[in-house]
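Look over both lines before class:
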Amino acid sequence: MKIGDRILKPGDLIKFRDYIYETDHYGLYIGPIYKTRPEDDPSFIPWSDIYVWSSKGEEEWISWQCEVVSADRGYGSG
């Protein structure tokens, strides 16, 4: 999964911009959404394409409304 020119990795901190309420939300990228959608409901249009762990728990977000805040996960050498 990519946001802009960055390839997302699990644990990356990302920001989701809610344009309806003009608020920012932060979470850790978990992974992409694959085939977890009901295929028998043609009226259901999936917008979300990534799983994120936020203060609300696991959520589905729209990657094109997100930006990578920090991809640095240096674990130290000593």
Notes: The chain has one domain: 2-36+45-70. The chain has no helices and seven strands.
